[in-house]
Amino acid sequence: MQASSHALPHAAPGSHAPHAHEDPGFWRTYIFSVDHKTIGIQYAVTGLIFLFIGFLLMAMMRWQIAKPGVPIPLVGWLLEAVLGDVAAKGIMSPDLYNSFGAMHGTIMVFLAIVPLVVGAFGNALVPLQIGAGDMAFPKLNMASYQFYLWGGVIMMTSFFIPGGAAQAGWTSYSPLSTIIPTDGQTFWLFAMVFLITSSLLGSVNLIATVVQLRAPGLTWFRLPFFTWAQFVTSFLLLLAFPPLEAAGVLQLFDKLTGSSFFLPTGLAVGGKFDQISGGGSPLLWQHLFWFLAHPEVYVLILPALGIVADIIANNTRKPLWGYKSMVYSALTIGFLSFLVWAHHMYLTGMGMKISTFFQTTTMIISIPSVIVLTCLLVSLWGGSIRFNTPMLFSLAFLPMFAIGGLTGLPLGFAASDIHLHDTYYVISHFHYVVAPGTIFALFAGIYFWYPKFTGRTMNEYWGKVHFWLSLIFMNLVFMPMFAQGMAGMLRRMSDGGANYAAATVKDTSYALSNTIIFFNTTISAAVWLLGLAQIPFIINFFYSFRKGPKVTSDNPWQATTLEWQTPTPPGHGNFVVEPIVYRGPYEYSVPGHPTDFVPQNEPPAKAAK
Amino acid sequence: MEIPYTVKPREDTGLYNAKLGIWLFLASEVMLFGALFSAYILLRVGAPGGLWPAGWQNIPLGTLNTFILITSSITMVMAWASLKSRDFAKFKIFQGLTLVLAIVFLGVKMVEYSKKFTHYEVRLNDELVLAEGKPVFGKVVSQTNNTVLFLPAKGLGKYGDSVKYPSAQVKTVVLGGVVDGHLHERSAEAVVIEGRKVAKSEDLLNLRSREAREATHEEIHLVPDQIARMHSYGPWHNTYLACYFAITALHALHVLGGIIVIFYFWGPGSRMWHTEPERFTNRIEVSGLYWHFVDLVWIFVFPTLYLL
Amino acid sequence: MSHDAHSSPGHAEAPAKPVNLRKAFYVFGSQLLITAMIVTAYYLPWGQTTVNMVFTIVLALCQAALVLCFSMHFITEKKFIYGVALFTAIFLSAMLYLILTAGSASGHLHVNHVS
Fold first, then answer.
1. Contacts of C107 in chain A (CB under 8 A)
2. CA A432, CA A539: separation in Å to the nearest integer?
3. pTM
4. Which chains pack against A, by 3+ Cβ pairs within 8 A?
5. Fewer CB in 10 Å around end: N or C, chain B?
6. Per the structure, how many domains does chain B have?
7. In sequence order, what are the beta bridge partners of B193?
8. Tens digit of each residue's pLDDT (9 = 90 or more) over A226-244
9. φ, ψ for residue A353, nearest 5 deg
């Protein structure tokens, strides 16, 4: 349906923007650009590549889990050729398994998801949604991307050094991470310093942008929920990352200078006392690490909630139900996320008072999360739902995030966590929130905003194929893991639990049953099929860029928010005329209005009958 | 569309963009140093009683550095005030003074660090004075009425296979102590330390005690076989020093960053004064905020690490 | 002596706004004085007691307040920045407190006497 109200005059093709300047050349335009949209696309492409690499690592690990000790088909020879002894005869050794596992986590969290949700979506869309010409500090933006890119390069390089990449999990617990004699962990720490710097600069930029550059009339409670989510996320990044940077510096000291920040007195390695000064505390690392890493998971989910909220409002043709509650909940989640970190540490012997404190805050933080989810669900009631690809992903996000969130509750109670800690149950819980959770939101966002940035739509049919296959296979991958975890199967076991299987262990009262072990095979198969299911998406993404059907309007989804009121794609400076905002972000189906949506910047006179 | 509020503040926040940006950045820096301080406090509080070093820093040098940094803060304010009064020449003077003071701060820090790296704690091997022949150095494994089981030293920290000495052969057993002081000379034949000898490492912890302050320092000559372990006072030595180096090194890095920025605005960047004076003044204000923060961190570092 | 402002053509003549420097010198003087007090207290016979520790920390906080309020002219900023600072202060205190109480085995915060 054609949009009939087009409040913003946009420059005809061929005319130049208000302040014309000479062509900056290839390097300044594509590599060292200061334009937030280009930088957003840079983040998106780099992030998607890392997402793919992280997935490949797990795909190879899943072979080892399902068939321990069997050479990996197709790529085993390549691993051996490139990595040498750790992949002798194409079999993934336990050391290589640990290394892949640690890097899978690190790459997915720090190199893929956060750059995608914050660097790509945040950078590209927030200035547009608030009616600004760019971010507050464009050069800082470019620096952020470069720090991210080179941090990622350092991380990837660590695979190829003698001894390989970091092996002590993405959590890098000391003393293990310090005493492993190779340099992979050192590379990891240096790369993390780069990545943290990138995040810090980016978050300063985003907060300053939202505070200072909102268009006239765009008050705080007229901001789209997507921008609110990005704003809270940036505060989390700003305040939570520095303790990890401090911890990283201290661990670097331990590795490079022989200090003992995290190494306790009397540490024995391989049966011999280590020549260290001692006096350190392994718990200190855990505290500093989780002080970041817990807010980090809210960094992973809040922008996803933002994406889903905007898409749901648009495709139900209704305002979001409980917008204000959602905003307050997002702020509360942000604040509380700093007070729950030790629920990752229930089994460290903290003492009852502290343990109770963290259980309480963990339970409390589930309340605003449920409020947001409930508001999104209720927003569907009475809507004229359009089941396009972005909406399908957004709809599926809701139950998937619900499963992820609800399964977190037994982990939040120390008593039940004693049984479930460090099992596959935990893996399944957090993957449900991030994989069919955040990643589905990312897919939704890509399909939704693709037309604005490229001027073409992605293919709907293949989008739906991508959706259904991904949904089915994601669940086939992660649902059985709950059972495996509850049966006692621990994380990070390179043989897939074969040592504890009923077939191996005589006393079968605690052994893993044949069914549980068999799930390893089904899960692995589902992972590979999930990988294949992404092929339509990848082809669609690149093909549509050149050959997809062109959009006939600047606002193909008939949306109300400001990013749709620009030329397609938006030029340098985004808006030809500074927009003035007159109303809230989700004025859909306003009674008496000729169209079922009213853009935020449409002057009131036109809105009246 | 141009980016607004780069120079003139936005009415409802009262800030121009860069000022908000620097305050946000400083908030993250507070978390960074806060994490380091909390790590220090945790390690200090968790250490067994009486086993934490005291008085290991040079207070006069630390006080000097504190005065230097405080003064540089004031010259920074004067530089900004000069720009507000449209006096570029005075700005150049005060900015230059700030730069010089900052560099002197780092210089004093280098002196402190080098003193630590030349200060050694040498743990000595046990000594067996034999009835005949030269004394042997190494580690006493066990001692009974009849025999002494002994590991002979073979260079720094290395030992050969155990040797049994009948008691008749052994005149005295001298258990190794600890020598502590500054290194004068180190070669394959001898190690010369100017310092003192104590019975065990724990005696070196409290330098504020009467014994420590009244101890005489002398030149002590050692042969390599006498030395069980030799450590300078670096981050590897104990947790207190590790914290000291981590915190002051990170602070010094921030000072260095500040020096680069201050130099840039004193030199090449000052050209902006002639084209956009108000924007340049804002830049000095923003870098001044950063510099005051660096001073602020030192105000906490000095008492915590030096005095308490 | 503000001749530089006149020498380049083509930019708007903004009026000179001199800053009151007397306050800055009072702050400077106070900082030096407080530092001297802290160091002197260290050398006095009561130097290593808990009382002195508290005294030193309180004085350091005073110095910090001086820097924050006057040198960084925090005191002249609008309410919004106070919010940012307050948030940070809360997080920092929470983190410090929780790490310390969670870190020690008994769950209680205890201070070792400095011998």
1. 350-354
2. 26
3. 0.90
4. B, C
5. C
6. 2
7. B183, B220
8. 999 999 999 999 999 999 9
9. -60, -50
